[in-house]
Amino acid sequence: TRKVLKPDAYQEFPLKEKTVLSHNVAIYRFSLPRPNDILGLPIGQHMSVAADIEGHPKEVVRSYTPITSDEDLGYVDLLIKSYPMGNISKHMSKLQIGQTMKIKGPKGAMVYTPNMVRHFGMIAGGTGITPMLQIIRAIIRGRPRNGGKDTTKVDLIFANVNFEDILLKDDLDTLAKEDEGFNVHYVLNNPPEKWDGGVGFCTPDMIKEKLPAPAKDIKILICGPPPMVGAMKKATDSLGYEKPRPASKLQDQVFCF
Q1: Annotated catalytic, 83?
Q2: pTM (2 decimals)?
Q3: Sign of the torsion angle spanned by Cα atoms 206, 234, 156, 194
């Protein structure tokens, strides 16, 4: 196997298949040059995706965390929600099979190593679930029962507007069922009639109830839309976690992707 990502140069990867999950969400599978190539993306890191889009003087760049890993050979899967105003996501939704996107990486300050903390508290909103899932899957792959030494506990609060907006719910529920060290707590703004999860926005009380208390050997990871990230930074600060800095560093207690 050979790692194909280059941190300092974009490469073009063709769209191989597209799996539509809902009216505005799809999984885009891009082929790597050779069938046994891997991306070469450390757990916790993400990559830049760029496109030349009409009406924009320079190329538009966004960061994405794949839902595949270096366990997957020959391709990379991106889960993308298309927004009416979203440049890359809208461009991607119109991409035809065989057309290419420019990708480079890895990038990002988070590099996961097994047992780097005793307990992760994760707060995700919408497509902010992708970096969390990457880390959760790596932890579970590294469990003693799977031949590893990873005993990290994970509690995830996953906030969405509607039930049908919950991305990758089946995957998360399956992982939570098979792994006693991982729990997922759903929060919805508009819950259906029979709903036993949280209601409204993610609040300091929910964080206090579901996530690990401030300690030297825990981390809180946050990813979601900017207004949510801002609110969660305030919430964790009010609960006595270390104050997050504007750009998160690996050693921070509260890390925002």
Answers
A1: no
A2: 0.96
A3: positive
User: Over the stretch 127-186, which tens digit does the pLDDT of each residue have?
Assistant: 999 999 999 999 999 999 999 999 999 999 999 999 999 999 999 999 999 999 999 999
Query: Among 68, 133, 138, which residue's Cα sits nearest to residue 103?
Result: 68
Between CA 249 and CA 256 the distance in angstroms is 9
91 is catalytic: no
Which of the following is catalytic: 64, 112, 186, 241?
64
The candidate with the shortest Cα–Cα distance to 111, out of 219, 224, 234, is 219
Q: Which one from 75, 152, 223, 256 is the annotated catalytic residue? A: 223
203 is catalytic: no
- Positions of E strands within 52-164: 60-64, 75-81, 100-107, 119-125, 153-162
- DSSP letters for 58-76: S-EEEEE--SS-TTS-SEE
Specify the length of the chain in residues: 257
